[in-house]
Amino acid sequence: MFLRVNWKSRCRWLIVGAWLLCAVSVGRGWCAAPAAATSISYKQKAALAIRSLQTLYDQRSGLYNTTGWWNSANAITTLADYARISGTSEFGPVFSNTFSAAQRKFPGFLNNYYDDEGWWALAWIDAYDLTNDGQYLSMAKSIFADMAEGWDDTCSGGIWWSKDRKYKNAIANELFLSVAAHLASRAKNSHERQQYRAWAMREWRWFSRSGMIGADHLVNDGLDARCTNNHKTAWTYNQGVILGALAELSRATRNSALLPVAQSIAAAVLSSPVLVGANGVLHEPCEPDCGGDGSQFKGIFLRNLRSLDETTPLPEYERFIFSNADSIWRGAREPDYRLGLSWSSPFGEANASTQSSAADALVGAAEVETLRASRFYIAHYRNPCRQCQSYVVCGTE
Question: PANTHER family from the entry (predicted)?
C-alpha cells in the first residue's frame, strides 16, 4: 500500500481516520454537513486545485511548466501534502518520475544555490514519509551533506546562499535548519540522529544570534558585508520556513523551549500591516509584480504555519489559515480552478508557482478542518451532541 502512516507528528494519524469516522457517523446521525455551510469542503477545494496544478506537470522533465527549478520542488511538496491528507496513492508515479527525470537537469538535485537544494531535500523527505521508499530519504541526506559544505566561519557561522560565497541570508540557513531537523526525526540509527540534531542546534544557535530576527520579531532577508542585519525585505517565506523548522526541531529534541520564538514570529506576521491586509489575508510586499520567485512565498508561509499549529494549536492560526483559503476560493480563482498571485484581489494571471502556492493554503485548511473534526469526534463520542460546533451538525443516534 502506498500510504505510510509514520507521519511528521502523531496528530497526523487522525487525518485519514477522521474522514472515515465522519463518513460512518453521517449514517448514524452524528456528523453531517450543516445546512447553511458551503457545499464543498476544503479537501474538495484542494483536490480541484491539485488537479489544475497537475495539468502543468511535464512528464518528460519531471518538472512543472511555467515555473522554475526550486518552485517545482515546492509543487512536489504541495502534492505530497495533499496526498497525505487525502490518503490517495495516485501521485506515487509522479514522485518516482520526478526523482529520475529531473536529475537530468541537475544530477543529485545539486546546483549552485544552497536554498534550491534545501527545497528539494524537503520535497524528498515528504515523499519518503508517504512511501517509505528509502531512495528518497537517501537523496535528502545526500543533499544535506552538500549544503553542509556551505558552512564556514564568515559571520561566525552559517551557510552561504550560493556556492559563489558572496551572501549569507535567511532562507538558505532556515532551510538548512529545517532539513537537519527533519532528518534528525527520520535517520535510522542513533548516531545519525545525533549528528543531524547537532547540526540543527548549531544552526539555530547561530541564526538566533545573527541579527536577522529583528526587534519587530520579523526575519529580514540577510546579512550585509559587516555581518549585520541588512534591513532588506521581510518576505513571507522567510517568516514561514523558520516556523516549520523550529516546530520540527522541537519534536526531534523534545524541547518545547524552541517554540516561543516561533510563536513570536507567527504573531508578528499576523499583526503586520505590511504582510497582512485589513481583510486578514496574506500579502507579499512585491505584489502585484512578484516575478517567478515571490509568487511562491505565501504558500510556503501557510504550509509552515500549519506545521507550527500541529505542535502548538492556536485558534488564531487556524482562523488565519481558513481566512486565506476562503479568500482564494472567493476571488483569486478561475472556473477551471486556476489560482492567481493575489489572494485578496480578483483573479490575475496564473502559473505553476501561483497555483501550488495557493494550493498550499487550501491543503492547510483541509488539514485543519479534518483535525478539528477528529478532535470533536474524540471529545464528543459518548455524547455527540453535548456541544455542536460551526463545522458539524449533530443529530441523535
Answer: ENDO MANNANASE, GH76 FAMILY (EUROFUNG) (PTHR47791:SF1), MEIOTICALLY UP-REGULATED GENE 191 PROTEIN (PTHR47791)
Span 160-207, pLDDT tens digits: 999 999 999 999 999 999 999 999 999 999 999 999 999 999 999 999
What φ, ψ does residue 219 adopt, rounded to 5°? -95, 125
Helix, strand, coil proportions of the chain in percent (round to 5)?
Answer: 60, 5, 35
Assess if residue 387 is contained within a domain.
no
Helix 134-148 to helix 170-184 angle (10° resolution) is: 140
Q: What are phi and psi of 276, to 5 degrees?
A: -130, 130
- Provide the CATH number for the domain around residue 71: 1.50.10.20
Degrees to nearest 5, angle at CA 159 with 153 and 164: 95
* Stated pTM of the model: 0.87
Residue 19, beta-bridge partner list: none
Q: List, for the chain, all residue ranges whose pLDDT scores fall below the cut of 50.
A: 1-16, 19, 21-38, 384-397
Compute and round to an integer the Cα radius of gyration of the chain: 20
Cβ proximity of 44 and 171 under 8 Å: no
